[in-house]
Amino acid sequence: MSKKEKNTSALNEKQGVEQPATLSKTAAEKLKNQRKKKQSVDELVNGIINGDKTALSRAITMIESTAQKHQQQAKALIKHCLPYANNAVRIGITGVPGVGKSTFIEQFGISLTQSGKKVAVLAVDPSSSVSKGSILGDKTRMESLVKDANAFIRPSSSGDSLGGVARKTREAIILCEAAGYTHIIIETVGVGQSETVVHSMTDFFLLLKLAGAGDELQGIKRGIIEMADAIVINKADGENVKAAKLAKTEFNRALHLYPPKTNGWTAKTLTCSALNNNGITEVSRMISDFISEMKKAGHFQKKRIEQHKFWLLQTVESRLKSDFYNNTTIKKELKFQLEKIEANETTPFEAADVLLEML
Amino acid sequence: MSKKEKNTSALNEKQGVEQPATLSKTAAEKLKNQRKKKQSVDELVNGIINGDKTALSRAITMIESTAQKHQQQAKALIKHCLPYANNAVRIGITGVPGVGKSTFIEQFGISLTQSGKKVAVLAVDPSSSVSKGSILGDKTRMESLVKDANAFIRPSSSGDSLGGVARKTREAIILCEAAGYTHIIIETVGVGQSETVVHSMTDFFLLLKLAGAGDELQGIKRGIIEMADAIVINKADGENVKAAKLAKTEFNRALHLYPPKTNGWTAKTLTCSALNNNGITEVSRMISDFISEMKKAGHFQKKRIEQHKFWLLQTVESRLKSDFYNNTTIKKELKFQLEKIEANETTPFEAADVLLEML
Q1: Better-scored residue on pLDDT, A195 or A320
Q2: How far is the CA of A328 from the CAs of A67, A232, A333, A357, A359, in angstroms?
Q3: Distance between CA B60 and CA B74 in Å, rounded?
Q4: Chain B positions in Cβ-Cβ contact with residue A77 (cut-off 8 Å)
Q5: Which of A180, A324, B176, B272 would be B181's cystine partner, CB 3.0–4.6 Å?
Q6: Mind giving me the DSSP string for A98-157?
Q7: Do B312 and A192 lie within an 8 Å CB cutoff?
Q8: What value, to the nearest 5°, has the Cα angle with vertex B203 and ends B139 and A331?
Q9: CA nearest neighbour of A95 among A247, A250, A207
Q10: B150-198, pLDDT tens digit by residue?
Q11: A344, B305: Cβ pair inside 8 Å?
Q12: pLDDT confidence tier of residue A59, bands split at 50, 70 and 90
């Protein structure tokens, strides 16, 4: 209906010849666009649920996009995938560069797919926003896993804040789970806050270590040890076997100095050689033991609920920010205030007052 | 005036005997409270500007308070202190536990006060929010500096997010500068994100290291090295002297592999023994050289402006959050949505939608 016909006055005369609403050019265009949009999201959702890796990749790219249009579609995507999600085991893996994360994840992933599981590997990489480096960037480091039909590997998105990467990874988990992946591995490098982020979205947190010369505890952040559900000492091969065993003993002793976790689990220490595929099945077994134990005692579900509460707050906060910065009036005033700071005509505190009073 | 008299109807009869407005009990009470509040902020500002350490301490405590009333007063405090601030040199110092930060800061602080400067020492300690540990908590570790009339030491505030600690520290810098401190030292421990925070609020960023056995570069985060304006190898005494010199050479070589900084400064490496008070004046000299060089080339002011822009965004974002969470309607709905998550009746994404649509 045209705008004129919306007049509800009793004096309003009905038009003799009315153009059918469905033929209105703008309305038809709108409908067409809506259909197109709906189709594309629907198609992606269908693809994902049927385990189509290309659809999954495209959907994650959509989540990572900063374009307003894509963000709307991403929201719809998540909404449709949510009923199919939440059933996988989420495993966080951290360790400094050189510890052999790629080799470990490849062997661990293969051990899972060989026992009939489906594995997705994601990454949280805050360093990529600064140095533009990227973990998992070089898929050739996981040659066999990349070729595995039951594995999906996604390099980390770059050029964003840690908070942004966290949101995108949480949403990517949902999509991977909807695509039927039973195990989601989230890789991160040992640079402080990123471990906390990965810990906040996983069921099991694994710290990968090397046996070094001397004091095994030097250089490890207390916070990361406190978060770890297991410490696995990699490269326990050749001449390293003895040192790895010693490191295992030392870590074990150290772990017993920490207060017990509220879920009753004592962090385990294991050794392995990802290179020689030694000790990997033991890691798998430990994790599945952990999951069944936690599920039986109700801790698994409890932790998930705590994580969901945390996600709620994080989601609200990130949307508060993006709504603010996308507001056109604010955008204009922010530009003006930044210029005033540049000219030394205001302070950050005064400028913030002006901006917030505009809301 | 009483509420009754506010009736503006023409039929309203004026009371024969009117109590003078100034004698109204509630108005008098309000005025008294206002006077009290105003006095107390004014008193604090006066105290701070006159260099009164007790007033400065009380003001920082006010900044750290989460009570709505104190936050209002804190805002007024900052506003009044700002014209007296911005004139100090701000130095960030980081290093892992055991590197000798306290001893170094004590000797460095004393070297500054002995040359007529005034030194304030603050701390950014994100670990305190988790483990309730605290750097600078034990003032006895800086016995001489504590007794120094021209030094002010403030332990880190605990029980807050890194973002909250950052805001409080930025505001504490303003207050210390208004109190006439010429050098503000911000201490932090090497746990990732906190360095970035300290780097974002200082003019000079110093990484304190130890000479270890073996590879000097192991275990150091690339990001922190990139941020450092100088690496100082501490404990270069006794049998350690040789190892320290070797470490200095290795760091120097490594630093030259990094791309040059935009301000033209090449990060320096020095050795010192804080314990024996060796090499400390060299550190002071290097920093004052840096400052004059940067001021001459205009980089100093440019960096401050960039930092102020960053502070503006940080201030806006933290206020957006606190305004949201302090809104009583939101508070109630948030509680409800969290209960729904607990009962598995909603997802974090849906709950966030509900909350944000209420704004």
Answers
A1: A320
A2: 15, 51, 9, 15, 12
A3: 8
A4: none
A5: B176
A6: TS-HHHHHHHHHHHHHHTT--EEEEEE-TTHHHH---TT--GGGGHHHHH-TTEEE-PPP
A7: no
A8: 115
A9: A207
A10: 999 998 765 567 777 888 899 999 999 999 999 999 998 765 678 888 9
A11: yes
A12: very high
The answer to whether residue B23 scores a pLDDT higher than 60 is: no
CA proximity to A184, closest of A90, A94, A108: A90
* Lateral strand order in the sheet of B204-210: B151-153, B119-124, B183-189, B89-95, B204-210, B230-234, B268-271
The answer to whether the CB atoms of A349 and B315 lie below 8 A apart is yes
Q: In a mutagenesis test of the A interface, which of B257, B316, B327, B336 is the best target, namely the one with the most A β-carbons within 10 Å?
A: B316
**Chain B contacts of A225, Cβ < 8 Å?**
none
10 Å Cβ neighbour count for A281?
16
Counted across chains A and B, CB pairs separated by less than 8 A come out at: 122
Which member of B219, B305, B352 has the closest CB to residue A316? B352
Mutation target among B175, B307, B315, B334 for the A interface, most CBs of A within 10 A: B315
pLDDT at B130: 40
Query: What's the confidence (pLDDT) of residue A218?
Result: 46
CB contact burial B114-130 (16+ within 10 A = b; e otherwise): eeebbbbbbbbbbbbbe
B122 forms bridges with which residues in the sheet? B186
d(CA A349, CA B282): 36
Nearest to B321 among A305, A320, A338 (CB): A320
The shortest C-alpha distance from B79 to chain A (Å) reads: 8
Looking at per-residue confidence, does B41 or B163 come out higher? B41
Is A38 or A25 the better-scoring residue by pLDDT? Answer: A25
Give chain A positions within 8 Å (CB) of B312. Answer: 337-338, 341, 348, 351-352, 355
Measured between CB atoms, which of A193, A323, A355 is closest to B316?
Answer: A355
Which of A194, A218, A315 is the closest to B348 by Cβ? A315
Q: Do A131 and B223 touch (CB under 8 A)?
A: yes
Residue A207 in this model has a pLDDT that exceeds 80: yes
DSSP A214: S
- In chain B, the residue whose alpha carbon lies closest to the alpha carbon of A224 is B191
Name which residue leads in pLDDT, A287 or B213.
A287
Tell me the pLDDT tens digit for each residue of A82-110. 999 989 999 999 987 788 899 999 999 99
For chain B, list the domains and their CATH numbers.
31-84 (1.20.5.170), 86-299 (3.40.50.300), 308-357 (no CATH)
Angle, nearest 10°, between helix axes A348-357 and B68-81?
130
Answer yes or no: do A79 and B191 touch at CB < 8 A. no
CA of B290 vs chain A CAs: smallest distance (Å): 23
How many residues can be counted in chain B? Answer: 359
**Which of chain A's residues have a Cβ under 8 Å away from the Cβ of B82?**
347, 349
> Is B308–A130 a contact, with Cβ atoms under 8 angstroms apart?
no
At a CB cut-off of 8 Å and minimum separation 6, what does A70 contact?
Answer: A62
CB contact at 8 A, B298 and B258: no
CA angle A315, A319, A320 (to 5 degrees): 115
Residue A135: pLDDT band with limits 50, 70, 90: low
Local confidence band at A31 (pLDDT 50, 70, 90 cut-offs):
low
Question: What is the longest distance spanned by two Cα atoms in chain A?
Answer: 97
| Model confidence at A289: pLDDT above 90 | yes
Which residues make Cβ contacts (< 8 Å) with residue A99, sequence separation at least 6?
A208, A209, A210, A234, A235
Interface confidence, given as ipTM, is 0.70
Contacts B130 to A, Cβ<8 Å = 223, 226
More confident residue, A321 or A215: A321
Closest residue in chain B to residue A195, using alpha carbons only: B192
